């Protein structure tokens, strides 16, 4: 029922409802659906309420905080015997190791990918996996197997699909070495994967690796049932970490970093009750007892939200987007006209919107990789936060809603950058390795109510480089492509040309209304030539060398054209 919302909007605009205009106004229709409506109630049932869940579904209090409508806490459920306390028997290990390079050279490489590669080398090292595989099997035999009258099962949570596959092979190898023939292993992961270390290049899938006790292949749809009926150890990579309901699951081995809600949801796979199931057991190779306590504490008793979100943060996110100078008001207008139009099918409308966004995507592609990455993060955050805010309040900001529609389409068209990968396997050696137990016992939670902090619309971390002037952008672009003798005199020439061109109203108009390629290849060269010739007449000596050196002339023209196109398209937005 949008009657109240329409009345509220009319008051907001200082009009009568009948003055609001076209009843088929698509943007208005969407805006009045935002926020709360008297004839609609929304309910969320969750064991792990996030701040956004509480602000959307919680009961607002006089002090500005939000509380759940009703609470049946983890603590109460444990005390009343409906679930088990998964933190009662918790053991943590830490691995200590030292790496050394096997080559004399000291090659340069990107820091972050190199650090990840070094950690991956240690995590995937055969000695590490062999040591942990032995602990996993012996833990199953001594703790898991005797539990629940001999029906206890174990889950091994790994950090990646490749780690799961290698664990599977290492555990199988250990079972063969020890001649244990009473343990059945299954694996769960999505898709298919090749192990780079496998000389045969075999492609692994869940259904291809799993067999039942009779040697029959197990399909993905059968994995849960076979594990319940006869499986002993299930190795998982993301799959089955949440939503998996197996009451016979008694033990869990964790070899993956777990944080916040994901830690609670993953470890809670063990909390189901079952006749004869008296306890659970967790062995954690990665997380500390303090980290797990911090993750569980907010959900142990009652979780509230201190205050609601400051919706002004969405405008800060919008300003961040505009600072990239990739699109302007005219681009938004074109997309929203197509979106609100009645012509053609939904498929054809999508195609026309994609065509309208092509120049914007080209502008995005002209940025360097750091700027592209920052822009992708910013636009996704803007779309996500607007969707969230519009659930809890009515903004009644047509321009902001149009920007959201524009960005929701644009974000889907932005190509990502290839991820830098570093292979250190051939130049690293594991010199020292030791697994050491660091905690054994119960992780005790406090009996207290926890108030979650306000969800923040955080500013996107932008590249560290200082902001460049338009002149610096042009010169840097020329230096990257032009290998001639570029002097300080050339810098003066470019600065002069930029000032002349920026004053050209015809050029600004063409840039705002034209496709990037049409502007730079067909329209701009003639304007640039006229401007350069006029400058030559006024200062012949200064401009002679530029006209004599054809390569330099075109290098300057292309660099200036790219920079001016971006600048002119966004000048309207800045005004």
TrEMBL record:
Region annotation Disordered: where it falls in the sequence: 197-220
Restriction endonuclease type I HsdR second RecA-like helicase domain ranges (all copies): 219-285
A GO molecular-function descriptor: endonuclease activity
One Pfam family linked to the record: T1R_D3-like
Superkingdom per UniProt: Bacteria
Keywords: Endonuclease, Hydrolase, Nuclease
Record-given protein name: Type I restriction endonuclease subunit R
């Amino acid at each position: 029922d949008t009657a109240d919302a329409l009345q509220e909007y009319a008051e907001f605009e200082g009009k009568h409802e009948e003055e609001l205009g076209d009843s088929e106004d698509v943007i208005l229709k969407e805006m009045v659906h935002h926020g709360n409506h008297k004839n609609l109630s929304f309910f969320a049932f969750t064991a792990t309420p996030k701040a956004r869940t509480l602000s959307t579904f919680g009961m607002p209090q006089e002090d500005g905080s939000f509380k759940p409508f009703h609470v049946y806490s983890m603590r109460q459920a444990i005390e009343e015997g409906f679930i088990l306390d998964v933190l009662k028997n918790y053991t943590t290990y830490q691995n200590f190791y030292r790496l050394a390079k096997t080559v004399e050279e000291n090659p340069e490489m990107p820091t972050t990918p190199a650090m990840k590669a070094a950690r991956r080398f240690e995590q995937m090292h055969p000695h590490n996996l062999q040591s942990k595989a032995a602990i996993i099997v012996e833990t199953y035999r001594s703790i898991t197997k005797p539990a629940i009258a001999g029906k206890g099962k174990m889950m091994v949570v790994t950090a990646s699909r490749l780690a799961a596959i290698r664990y599977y092979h290492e555990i199988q190898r250990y079972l063969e070495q020890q001649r244990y023939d009473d343990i059945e292993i299954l694996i769960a992961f999505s898709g298919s994967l090749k192990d780079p270390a496998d000389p045969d290049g075999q492609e692994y899938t869940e259904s291809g690796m799993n067999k039942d006790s009779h040697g029959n292949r197990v399909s993905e749809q059968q994995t849960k049932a076979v594990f319940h009926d006869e499986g002993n150890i299930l190795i998982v990579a993301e799959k089955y970490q949440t939503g998996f309901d197996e009451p016979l699951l008694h033990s869990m081995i964790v070899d993956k970093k777990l944080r916040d809600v994901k830690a609670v949801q993953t470890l809670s796979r063990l909390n189901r009750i079952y006749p004869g199931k008296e306890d659970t057991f967790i062995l954690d190779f990665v997380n500390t007892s303090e980290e797990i306590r911090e993750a569980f504490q907010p959900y142990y008793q009652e979780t509230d939200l201190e205050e609601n979100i400051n919706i002004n943060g969405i405008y800060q996110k919008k300003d961040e987007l505009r600072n990239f100078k990739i699109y302007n008001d005219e681009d938004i207008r074109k997309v929203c006209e197509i979106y609100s139009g009645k012509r053609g099918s939904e498929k054809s409308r999508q195609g026309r919107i994609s065509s309208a966004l092509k120049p914007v995507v080209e502008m995005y592609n002209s940025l360097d990789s750091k700027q592209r990455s920052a822009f992708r993060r910013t636009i996704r955050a803007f779309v996500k936060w607007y969707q969230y805010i519009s659930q809890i309040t009515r903004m009644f900001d047509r321009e902001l809603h149009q920007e959201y529609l524009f960005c929701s389409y644009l974000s889907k068209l932005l190509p990502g950058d290839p991820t830098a990968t570093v292979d250190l396997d051939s130049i690293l050696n594991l010199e020292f390795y030791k697994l050491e137990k660091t905690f054994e016992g119960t992780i005790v939670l406090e009996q207290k109510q926890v108030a979650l902090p306000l969800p923040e619309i955080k500013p996107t971390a932008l590249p560290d480089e200082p902001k460049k002037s338009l002149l610096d952008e042009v010169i840097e672009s020329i230096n990257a492509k032009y290998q001639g003798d570029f002097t300080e005199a050339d810098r003066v020439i470019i600065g002069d040309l930029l000032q002349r061109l920026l004053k050209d109203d015809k050029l600004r108009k063409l840039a705002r209304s034209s496709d990037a390629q049409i502007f730079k290849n067909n329209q701009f060269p003639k304007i640039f030539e006229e401007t350069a010739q006029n400058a030559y007449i006024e200062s012949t000596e200064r401009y002679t060398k530029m006209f004599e050196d054809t390569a330099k002339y075109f290098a300057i023209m292309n660099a200036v054209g790219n920079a001016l196109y971006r600048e002119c398209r966004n000048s309207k937005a800045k005004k």
